[in-house]
Design a protein that fits this description.
There is one protein chain. This protein is about 40% helix and about 15% strand. It has ten helices and twelve strands. The strands form four sheets. A six-stranded parallel β-sheet has the order 5-4-1-6-7-8, sandwiched between helices. Strands 2-3 form a two-stranded antiparallel sheet. α1 packs antiparallel against α10, α8 (about 215-230) packs parallel to α10 and α9 packs antiparallel against α10 (about 270-285). The longest helix is centred in the last third of the chain and has 16 residues, at about 215-230. The chain starts with a helix and ends with a strand.
Length: about 290
């Protein structure tokens, strides 16, 4: 538990000054990771549209792909779901990491067909949202600037509502308040966030907040690594390599709208440093006699 608390502290560095982290519930990272120990099949949903650039952002695809890689190492079957604007970006990560995952693309209007089809699989135990744009109280999607996202997109919020009704464990990872899962903190954030109309209304079983959503995915991987005693977290150099892959596939930094080596306005060096800190935290296991536990 203490190692996972240290991991949680690392990923919660509020480098982007989003100011939602103080409202996060304690131990959800540990609880979410522990729940995954009993997983069978897992669905990961990701994708945030950058309307000005008409493409997806760099935060989300990296975390989803590396998390899928970690879960495959644990022999879990993984499906990634996303929107058409994010298809080429996610496919590029799958190819670059040689993942076995199935990539499912859902366009606006296909929810009634594809969501029940996915959830009819009795082997699915977990549904994870990682930087997945979420619906606000008025039924719209908003970016962090408070501007409405006009493009029609599949409403993945309903997938999470249906999953909870079926007893599927839901986990969400976000950093700004407008992602799926932030509904778990809606009442706490509404009076504290200036642009409170952007807040998502969909709750989940376990909400992981982080300074950058990708970091939340990496924190989950690090905590899992600790729990299973197996290295699941990627190398910092792999972060750099895969960022270049998704930039080549069309992704942009969601804060700067630029196709540069950064995520959420933070240079790649910062993300590599976070991964390095997570590796050190995993290694810092308590000793009993001459053995680490």
């Amino acid at each position: 538990m203490k190692i996972c608390s240290k991991i949680d502290e690392i990923i919660k560095e509020d480098a982007g000054n989003r100011n939602i982290i103080p409202f996060a519930k304690r131990n959800t990272l540990y609880d979410a990771a522990k729940s995954l120990l009993n997983a069978k099949e897992i669905v990961i949903v990701t994708g945030f549209y950058i309307e000005r650039m008409k493409t997806g952002e760099t935060d989300g695809p990296l975390g989803a792909a590396f998390l899928a890689q970690a879960l495959e190492k644990l022999t879990y079957k993984v499906t990634i779901m996303t929107s058409p604007f994010n298809e080429q970006i996610m496919q590029a990560t799958i190819d670059a990491l040689h993942l076995k995952v199935e990539l499912v693309i859902v366009d606006a209007g296909e929810e009634l067909e594809k969501f029940p089809q996915i959830l009819s699989n009795p082997s699915i135990t977990h549904l994870i949202a990682l930087e997945q744009m979420g619906i606000a109280l008025d039924g719209n999607y908003y970016n962090m600037a408070g501007m409405k996202i006009a493009i029609p997109v599949a409403r993945f919020d309903s997938l999470f509502v249906q999953a909870r009704e079926k007893g599927i464990t839901t986990i969400a990872i976000g950093d700004g308040g407008n992602e799926i899962g932030m509904g778990s903190l809606y009442s706490q954030l509404f009076s504290k966030i200036e642009k409170n109309w952007i807040l998502n209304i969909t709750p989940v079983d376990y909400l992981i907040t982080a300074g950058v959503s990708n970091w939340g995915g990496y924190g989950l991987m690090a905590c899992l690594s600790y729990l299973v005693g197996e290295p699941l977290l990627h190398d910092p150099q792999e972060e750099k390599r895969l960022l270049q892959v998704i930039l080549d596939a069309g992704a942009v930094d969601g804060r700067t709208n630029m196709r540069v080596m950064s995520v959420d306005g933070l240079p790649i060096k910062k993300h590599m440093e976070i991964i390095d800190l997570l590796h050190k935290a995993i290694m810092d296991r308590p000793m009993v006699g001459n053995q680490q536990i």
